[in-house]
Description:
By secondary structure, the protein is an alpha/beta fold. The protein has a domain at 70-239: Rossmann fold. It is built from nine helices and seven strands. The chain has a seven-stranded mixed β-sheet with strand order 3-2-1-4-5-7-6, with helices on both faces. Helix 1 runs parallel beside helix 3 and helix 3 (50-62) packs across helix 4. The protein is globular. The model has no long low-confidence stretch (mean pLDDT 95). Belongs to the methyltransferase superfamily. RNA methyltransferase RsmG family. It is an enzyme of class 2 (transferase). This is Ribosomal RNA small subunit methyltransferase G. Specifically methylates the N7 position of a guanine in 16S rRNA.
Amino acid sequence: MTGAFEEKFQNELNLLSIELKNYQINQFYDYFQLLIEWNKFMNLTAITEMDEVITKHFVDSLSLVKAVKEMRTKNYRIIDVGTGAGFPGIPLKIAFPDLKITLMDSLNKRINFLNEAINRLELKEIEAIHGRAEDLGRDPLHREQYDLCLSRAVANLSTLSEYCMPFVKPGGYFIPYKSGKIEEELGAAKHAIFLLGGNVEEVKTFLLPGTEVERSLVKIVKNHGTSKKYPRKAGLPSKEPLK
């Protein structure tokens, strides 16, 4: 591992008040190396420079602690919907090993990468599953089984809520990672969130360290069970977002 990687990562972890052991820092470095290695033959990320991966993937993923302070002490069951190359789920698992994490993606090639990462990093109580949110959100093994549903996927909040809220147990939270100004999008999604059984509790907005990248964590609490009519069949949530 390079000293430059460790120094930059430690400096940004300090801003989140996260302390990692040496083996965890090594796991992050190995994850970075694996990401770059696989990215040569499949499209996992457009971000490949070490400094940018640290800030825009690793630290961004871990910034969840701004919205969920008790991450450090609870062994939450979490699903990461549309995880792609494993963000935010794998960084959270490395930093907080007691979490139980399900990584979900609709592309089988990405699942192969995620399983390789899980094995290479020797992570336990984490699984990668292939499927669409519209289908798995109706599966009793996953519907309303999670304390937290997370997503960094790019979709409007109404659509993303329909994909994600069915996974959250009543009393749990759906927390999307959103970029830029979100007031208008948030206003447009409030009724959809209500229909799905939730409401917006708070929004944490901040800049990623050393960048002008604005990030918002929208903390949506699930007040009661989601109606059985949601999620609608594949394609509808994105073509006709709830209003």
